[in-house]
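One example copied in:
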Amino acid sequence: MNAINAGERDQQRQRRGLQFQNVFLGWESWDVNESQQSVPEHQYASKNPILVHHLDPLDVDILNQRHAFDLPSQAVCDALVDVFFKWIAPVLPVINRHDFMRRYRNPQNPPSILLLQAILMVASRFYHNAHSSENGAISPRTFYKKVKALYDAEYERDPTTVLQAVVLLGIYWDGPDDLTESGIFYWSRLGIALAQEHGLHQSENYVALSATQRRIWKRIWWTLYTRDRSVAAAFGRPLHINSEDCTVEPLDESDFIEYDGQNGSSTDRTPALFFMQSTEDSRMKGAAQSILYSTFYTIVCQLHLLQAPVSSKEAQSSAFHAATSIVSIMETMQSKGELKYTPSFIICHAVVSFVTLRSQMEASTPSLLHAIRQNLEANLDMLEVLAHTWPIAGMLLEYFRTMTGPEHFERMLSTATEKCGKRARGEENDSSTPLRSSARFKRPKLQQVVLPQTRVVLQILQRETQKQSNSQGPLHDKSNTGVEMTL
């Protein structure tokens, strides 16, 4: 009996090892009579055994248990690939679109399943379809498990393809747990380590490469470089790339040339201009420009928060303008239906804007207090929209709403009105500007200015929370802990 069961298991393992759907045009369905199990509609099979011959049978079995070779229908895959190259590739330009699409349409030479699943993973977050969440089949977490399983099994042997998939894994973010050892920081560090192992950071290693490979290596390296900076800045973590070790030339527009058989070369300059933003005439319109301006205003707010609460009236005014501009930019993108496609760092922009506005609610001018409240409410509305794409925004939204209740606002408005009346009667001087500390202000080092924005945000939140606790009672400990874990 044991021998028979073992033989049946071996036969089933061999059949399941062929599940990777290879035919992107025909999309031949799996014969359910062969598998002895009914397969959901989104699963497909292939008849190409060479795809798994280099793997241990146990690894193949694990990959099939993870459904790592299963793909959605052709229509869904086409939609997800289109979303990726339209909304994500400009931010993460690590894949040659024309080369990928040529293989995507070629049944005899399809793209790597690891890279394809990684693309589907990233794009599925921005795929808004009534059937996209059925049975969890088309969700970032579902695809993430497939990509991770393929990576762990060392299914892909081409180092460039592995690097491309790891870069895409680095933007997976569903909750606080995805910031730790299995999330953003892990994959970002891993991508940098792999790139340096293969010499992507040193120009002499590019000499023997073809022009196409040289372009894609440079784009991968500088994507990792910018991601290293943005992740460190967003979460207050140390940098992992030392600029002094990098000898690769900066990107230029020629690095974004992608040849195809029809046009000779790519004519879409948007990815290059968005990623580089290097010349005066590269200030294009649309979502890309909005995100760039939003990033600038976020930095202005952060520099102000680093000096709070002893910042000058001019600094407070600049910070208020920057924070409201961030809200306005998000509202503009929302009006055009583009906010749901924005990268994850837009959440950081929203958080910094909220904290900046919330820190100025002690303003003694009723009109300014009204403006702050309106922008805070608009900020929360935008976070609610973002929560449909990035679940982490929902956690922040729930926490921030506890800090902007109408009762608290009415008390502050009453106090501001009373102070305004006293000043009008000459009973009180204008004290809206905080007194300067007698101690000389020491400007932080540049690294401290760039990196620990999250720590600054937490400090401001904790200070404002303490003020609210003194006037309204303590907040729930659970909410506090959740935000600290998140940020």
Observations:
- The chain is about 55% helix and 0% strand.
- Residues 211-235 form the longest helix (25 residues).
